[in-house]
Specification:
With 195 residues, the chain is α+β, with helices and mostly antiparallel strands. The protein is 24% helix and 32% strand. The protein starts with a helix and ends in a 9-residue tail after the last strand.
Length: 195
């Protein structure tokens, strides 16, 4: 009974945080990093092959957000549906690598069919948030997802760890396009057996 009550509180907290972010974005409340620093528009990659982008990604680092508070070992799995939308399953462990699993199921839609790099994601059907692919490995082994405000950022990989040189190169690119990389939280991940 206690566990169910905790889970309900966590769900309500996540919903409240996401709604607050959605309303603030929709109403133009607050000043985004892009506005605060006087930066130009954020650019996406030229083209994304959706079929190659589907599947499971491990979160290597992120800008902290209230809706991911306490999340470690975070993953996102994308699955194409018959109606052209994409199922989004986000999972993480609560606080520790062996903590309780948390998950959220949402939907994504492509909003720029010319590049497939601009998507929107929802976990509440009526409130869609921008999900822009702003950097991507040629072999789709890693990706960087951002938001035009530059206040949301995720570095993703097909594996739970990332080569330090690759990570450093991603950070250099992010700094060059105006991201404040010192805000990044490196996500603890469970290492998988590659042998």
């Amino acid at each position: 009974m206690k566990t169910r009550s905790k889970r309900r509180r966590r769900i309500v907290k996540s919903i409240t945080a996401l709604l607050a972010i959605t309303f603030a974005t929709a109403l133009g409340c607050g000043i985004s990093t892009t506005e605060r620093l006087g930066l130009g528009p954020l650019k996406t990659v030229e083209y994304v092959e959706l079929e190659r982008y589907l599947g499971t990604w491990y979160e290597i680092a992120r800008f902290p957000q209230s809706f991911q508070e306490g999340c470690v070992a975070s993953t996102a799995t994308y699955t194409l549906r018959d109606d052209g939308l994409i199922d989004v399953l986000n999972t993480c462990r609560n606080e520790t690598l062996d903590g309780e699993e948390r998950s959220a199921l949402g939907l994504a839609r492509v909003v720029d069919a010319e590049t497939n790099a601009k998507l929107q994601v929802t976990f509440f059907l009526f409130f869609w948030g921008d999900y822009w692919i702003i950097d991507l490995a040629d072999d789709y082994s890693w990706a960087v997802v951002g938001h035009p405000s530059r206040d949301y950022l995720w570095i993703l990989s097909r594996t739970p760890t990332m080569d330090a040189e690759v990570y450093s190169g991603i950070l250099q690119h992010l700094e060059a396009v105006g991201y404040e990389t010192e805000r990044l939280y490196v996500t603890p991940q469970v290492e998988t057996d590659t042998g």
